[in-house]
Recover the amino acids of this structure.
């Protein structure tokens, strides 16, 4: 099967939309409840770093589906990671 470049981009945008929107409920739940007990600091650190690298990769190869999806997911993951870091620091002070 041979696809045109715009068809390939449509697949990329669909994948970007689905993976980013799937992440949104976790972010909203974390912001609203501040309940981060089920969030692993190590996993979220690695995940956020990985998404950041996917963003850099997308920028290097100039592929907008990768850039947009990973920029949005990076912002969401980083915000949850920052909440987790604050929560962890607060727990250690007690």
């Amino acid at each position: 099967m041979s696809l045109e470049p715009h068809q390939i981009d449509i697949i990329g945008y669909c994948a970007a939309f689905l993976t980013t929107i799937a992440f949104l409920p976790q972010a909203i739940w974390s912001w609203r409840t501040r309940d981060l007990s089920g969030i692993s600091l190590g996993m979220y650190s690695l995940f956020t770093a990985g998404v950041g690298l996917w963003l850099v990769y997308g920028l290097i190869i100039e592929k907008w589906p990768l850039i947009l999806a990973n920029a949005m997911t990076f912002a969401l993951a980083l915000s949850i990671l920052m909440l987790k870091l604050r929560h962890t620091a607060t727990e250690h002070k007690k």
